[in-house]
Amino acid sequence: MKNCHRIKIFYLIVFSVFSSSYSQEVLTIENAIKIALENNFEIKIASNNYNIAKTNSTIGNAGMLPTLTASVAANNRVQNSTLTLQNGVVNALDNALNNSLNYGVSLDWTIFNGFKMFTRLEQLKELEKLGSTQLQQTIISKLSEVSSTYFNLVQQQQQLKALDSTLVISNQRLALAQNRFAIGKASKLEVLNAQVDLNTDNVVLLKQQEVFQNTKTLLNKILARDLQTQFNVIEKIKVDENLKLTELSDLVEKQNPQLVSLLLSKNVAELQLKQIKGDRYPVITLSSGYVFNETQASLGFAAATSARGFNYGFNAALNLFNGWNQNRNEKIAKIMLDNSKLTLNSQRLELQAQLNAAYQTYLTNNQLVVIENKNEFYAKQNLDITLDKFKIGTITTLEFRTAQLNYVNAKVRNSNAQFQAKLSEIVLKELAGIINLD
């Protein structure tokens, strides 16, 4: 009766733990992705950087618009002055006042600089696209991290469930061993072995719970929310088994953010070379303005003067020689352009190699899922049969323990195989630039 009471208490504890866990928030992968898009700091920073590039992409920043400046200047002097005329007459005045006032507006407009302004505008647009691509790359990278961490939690939660079930069986085994010992059908050694195995299962469960809670904290950090937020995940891992290598390879070429960024960087380098070549052309600038000038003097030929009016003109300049710096700048720009092309080709080859390796891993992991599913099914059947035989005393405790561990290990391997298959899918989609990673 005492053992039956202990088993009832254990079941009540397990039931209360599961009840409290199910009362927590159930976080789906879709909600996790939504929260990450709204809260993640790295995504916000990348979004701000994109907004900077977008704000910079204007014709004014390219130098295509005139500059209009308003200015005012006032100068006042008090000084002792002496004025000697041609006829020898000397006029002197202490504390003589001299005032001048100038104000007006001026306009300057570069109307031609070797087409550099147009090239600069194209470059700013390419930099805006680059900012957008880098934002997309950050989003895909973070969503990949969210998905990987989420499904890691799923497999850990599945393993916790398996360990909980084996703990129930270990308690049953201990109760049976104690009953058999009480009626003289088993030795004390059997009871002690059952107790040791139960304690071992408790240790494994506690360690797994620690890993589970730490992974929860990690996911909360990625989601940029309170680290103490408690939640559960849906115990299901669904792997997309229809991914094709040829289709993924085409997507890598078209929309992989790293590859697109390098392509845009190459375009920026080409436009930079065009801008430098523009320095070989003349620069023509128009200028105009309206100015008012007024001066007052206590001593001199004129007591006051004033002038106002419109002025205009143009300026043209052509660099004829600057110490061969023009040739040097063009040479460096060409080398930088060549480097950008080499980097692009190298990254293209690297991504295709990663894709091929990841796809082979994806195929292998999908095959392992099928095998581990069967292994778990067989291990469960074996455990059920072994448990029945153990209850009637036809097998040893060692045989029972072996069947129990085989079942737990089969469930853990099956859960891990599903997780690894999902990771392979996530890696492939990240390489292909697919944002939908659930």
UniProtKB/TrEMBL annotation:
Subcellular location field: Cell outer membrane
Annotated keywords: Cell outer membrane, Membrane, Signal, Transmembrane, Transmembrane beta strand, Transport
A Pfam match: OEP
Gene3D superfamilies, A to Z: Outer membrane efflux proteins (OEP)
Keyword Magnesium found: no
Keyword Transmembrane attached: yes
SUPFAM superfamilies per the UniProt record, alphabetical: Outer membrane efflux proteins (OEP) (SSF56954)
InterPro entries xref list: OMP_efflux, TolC-like
Signal peptide from the UniProt entry: 1-23
PANTHER family: OUTER MEMBRANE PROTEIN TOLC
Family: Belongs to the outer membrane factor (OMF) (TC 1.B.17) family.
Protein name: Transporter
